[in-house]
Every structure is written in C-alpha cells, then in structure tokens.
TrEMBL record:
<keyword id="KW-0028">Amino-acid biosynthesis</keyword>
<dbReference type="GO" id="GO:0004664">
    <property type="term" value="F:prephenate dehydratase activity"/>
</dbReference>
<dbReference type="GO" id="GO:0005737">
    <property type="term" value="C:cytoplasm"/>
</dbReference>
<keyword id="KW-0456">Lyase</keyword>
<dbReference type="InterPro" id="IPR008242">
    <property type="entry name" value="Chor_mutase/pphenate_deHydtase"/>
</dbReference>
<feature type="domain" description="ACT">
    <location>
        <begin position="201"/>
        <end position="278"/>
    </location>
</feature>
<dbReference type="InterPro" id="IPR001086">
    <property type="entry name" value="Preph_deHydtase"/>
</dbReference>
<keyword id="KW-0057">Aromatic amino acid biosynthesis</keyword>
<dbReference type="InterPro" id="IPR045865">
    <property type="entry name" value="ACT-like_dom_sf"/>
</dbReference>
<feature type="domain" description="Prephenate dehydratase">
    <location>
        <begin position="10"/>
        <end position="185"/>
    </location>
</feature>
<dbReference type="GO" id="GO:0009094">
    <property type="term" value="P:L-phenylalanine biosynthetic process"/>
</dbReference>
<comment type="pathway">
    <text>Amino-acid biosynthesis; L-phenylalanine biosynthesis; phenylpyruvate from prephenate: step 1/1.</text>
</comment>
<protein>
    <recommendedName>
        <fullName>prephenate dehydratase</fullName>
        <ecNumber>4.2.1.51</ecNumber>
    </recommendedName>
</protein>
<dbReference type="InterPro" id="IPR018528">
    <property type="entry name" value="Preph_deHydtase_CS"/>
</dbReference>
<feature type="site" description="Essential for prephenate dehydratase activity">
    <location>
        <position position="178"/>
    </location>
</feature>
<keyword id="KW-0584">Phenylalanine biosynthesis</keyword>
<dbReference type="InterPro" id="IPR002912">
    <property type="entry name" value="ACT_dom"/>
</dbReference>
C-alpha cells in the first residue's frame, strides 16, 4: 500500500488498479486519487492512518450475493458509512494487442466473474482459470504477452494495462450490479428534516430466548418502517450466537424509526448504528422496475 501526497483527495479501495472497486471510485469521486490496497483490512487502515479520506467497500452483487467476510469486518472497521453507490458490472474479454477471439484458448479471472460469463466461455469453447481478481488477471495477461490467454475484467483494466477488448458486455445478466459503501473516519449524518430519503445501517445481537428475533423486529413492522436488509452470520465461533446486519429506510430521529429502535434495544443487545446516509437513486429505480 503506497502513501499518497494528498490524503484529503484520496479514496482507498481493495484490489489492483483497474478493479471494479477502482471504477466505482472514479464514478463517485472523479477528481480523487484512488489508492489500491491488498485487503479490506488495509483499506480501512488507510483511512484510519490518514492516508485516505474515504474507503470504497463492495458489499453485495446482484448475481453473486454478498461479498465474503465483509459483513464481519464492517462493525470492527472503526469507520462510519456515509454513502452508497451502485456500480454496473460490464465485463470485457481482454487480450494483448493483435490477438483475436480465434486465438484465445484460456481465460483468467475471479471466480465470480467467470461464473457471471458462463455463456461466452461455453460459446467460445475456452478453458476458464480461476485467479485472485479481475484486474490482477488483466495485469498477468499483459505481462505474459501470450495471444492465447484472455482475461475477464473491466474496461478500466484494459486502459490500465494496455490490453484490447475483444468483446464488451459479456456478462450473462444485464442487471449485474455491485453495491458499494462509502466509509469515513467521521460520521456524516444527514439532518432529520432532509428532503431526500436516507438509509440507516446497523448491527445487533438478539438475546438467546425463544422468539427473540421476532419480538426484536416487531417494532419496525408496527411502526411502518421498511427494512430492506436483514442478514445473519455466526460470531465468535459459537453456533448458538448470531449477529445481524440490517438496513432500514428512514432516519433514527424520525418518530417511527426511533420507536422501532427502542423496541429493538429492549429485546436485543449490542445494537450499533454503522451509518446514516443518503439513499442512492438506484434503490428506487430497481423498485419501480419490480412493481411494473
């Protein structure tokens, strides 16, 4: 992880230059320097150490599901969620200049990217090879200079490593989208009376008694609060204890949300708000499509 000269205009991400996280950084903060980090822990640390102002963290993909391990790391990151971004994932089949599709024998990429492009892999009859990440695969293809090897990665990866796109938008599902959280060391909470919709993200553990989860969440239903995410995962290696990551639409200072949280805290323990932030327009665009 390299140091940057202007931390106030730097955003950290996990992965190699040209990764989809890098693309998300460019989309949201086009004037910022993007700082690549080896791991999510390093990405959080870059912000805590003052090397970057923000971190861009992927949490969910519409095809692959949630990003592994990130839900364990978020509550312990020491950072606050201040925004969200939905990044379309448009995969490209990348190769060295001069290569043609007929030359390609193998294709390298992250396991999820390979899984999201099964149709073209079968169509071309090429052998998939699992690699650590998409951008790293592009870098390896550029380094080897072998016309028979391709990578599935972003257009930015092609630009970064001097590759050419033999075919664009090769993902099987056109809705392929990754949701990112923008995180900072200091919370930036919108005012209660903001005219724009907000999201509140939080974690909690329920007491180990019958119907505890049902009772803990009852307040959100009775107060008309829309819960858009609820995921559980094992903590501390105990199969009888689970932590829940949840998101609701609304501000904690709104009466309905405040009452729901009061009921949650009565039946739960270790309730922790991770961030209150503006809702991305994609949320409502996707909802409208489902309702049509």
């Amino acid at each position: 992880m390299a140091e940057t000269s202007k931390p106030a205009t730097t955003i950290a991400f996990q992965g190699s230059p040209g990764a989809y996280s890098h693309l998300a950084c460019r989309a949201v903060f086009p004037d910022f320097t993007a700082l690549p980090c080896a791991s999510f822990e390093d990405t959080f640390q870059a912000v805590r150490d003052g090397l970057a102002k923000y971190a861009m963290i992927p949490v969910d993909n519409s095809v692959a599901g949630r990003v592994a391990d990130i839900h364990h790391l978020l509550p312990r990151s020491g950072l606050h969620i201040i925004g969200e971004h939905y990044q379309p994932v448009n995969h490209h089949l990348l190769a060295v200049p001069g290569a043609t599709i007929a030359d390609i024998r193998t294709v390298r990429s992250h396991v999820h990217a390979l899984g999201q492009c099964r149709n073209i892999i079968r169509e071309l009859g090429i052998r998939p090879v699992v690699a650590a990440d998409t951008a790293g695969s592009a870098a390896e293809v550029a380094e080897k200079g072998d016309k028979t090897i391709a990578a599935i990665a972003s257009e930015l990866a092609a630009e970064t490593y001097g590759l050419v796109s033999l075919r664009a938008n090769i993902e099987d599902e056109t809705h392929n989208t990754t949701r990112f959280l923008i995180m900072a060391e200091e919370a930036v909470t919108p005012p209660r009376d903001t005219p724009h919709p907000v999201v509140t993200s939080f974690v909690f553990r329920v007491r180990n008694v019958p119907a505890a989860l049902y009772k803990a969440l009852g307040g959100f239903a009775t107060n008309g609060v829309n819960m858009t995410k609820l995921e559980s995962y094992i903590v501390d290696g105990h199969f009888v204890a689970a932590q829940f990551l949840a998101e609701v639409e609304g501000h904690p200072e709104e009466r309905s949300v405040r009452l729901a949280f009061e009921e949650l805290q009565f039946f739960s323990r270790e309730v922790k708000i991770l961030g209150v932030y503006p809702a991305h327009p994609y949320r409502f665009e996707a909802r409208a499509e489902l309702e049509d």
